[in-house]
Amino acid sequence: MVNKLAEKITKNLAEVQQQLQQVNQEANANGVDGSNVTLLAVSKRHSIEAIQAAYAAGQRQFAENYVQEGVDKIQQLQDLAIDWHFIGPLQSNKTKDVAQHFSWVQSVDREKIAKRLNQQRPAELAPLNVLLQVNIDQDANKSGLMPEQVKSLAAFVDTCPQLKLRGLMTILEANTDEQQQRQSFANMRRLYQQLQQQYPASVDTLSMGMSGDMRQAVLEGANMVRIGTAIFGQRE
Ligand SMILES: *Cc1c(COP(=O)(O)O)cnc(C)c1O
Question: How many other CB atoms are found less than 10 A from the CB of residue 225?
């Protein structure tokens, strides 16, 4: 029997990869180094079957927003060679689950959270990869650091042996036009370049761009995009 869900996800994934490749070439032609953009599949509120279908189509990096949902999926899919990223808001009473089960966390925006993740990351696991979330549009509805706070939190994370500072993540304000999106992403790139100069041995990841603004993000230098809807369809 033909599995419609798997068929749809396989097709969507191929389309997203093709778009990504095209826009990446465009970025490189403009002199923006977006080489090797990593595609992260955001599977929040999608089923185990949907994740298995994307995996069967070659996808290996997945992201979840809710701690309990993410941990349940990680445990059910522990036989698959997946890198799991946590990208949602993180409360201090949930840091332990993230430290024990994920390999990346992209939403670190305060020292208290970083400290707990460092203490709770099991010694036998590789350091937890950390991106600092920046509220680049200074949107009152969003979490994340103000741009001028990045330096001091980065310095703290860099001293934590069980954490590895890998770069920055952002989510733009909703309903802005393309011009404004480009501007915000360009501001992120400048912050990222400063961070990279300071920590050249570890910082290599600029995570920005979702289904609605992937193109603008890659044109401004994203090297990781987080795509949910364009791969899996609308969430429940
Ligand atoms: C849900 C989510 C995404 C994916 O959004 P889509 O519009 O479905 O591609 C990316 N990043 C974060 C932080 C999210 O919460």
Answer: 27
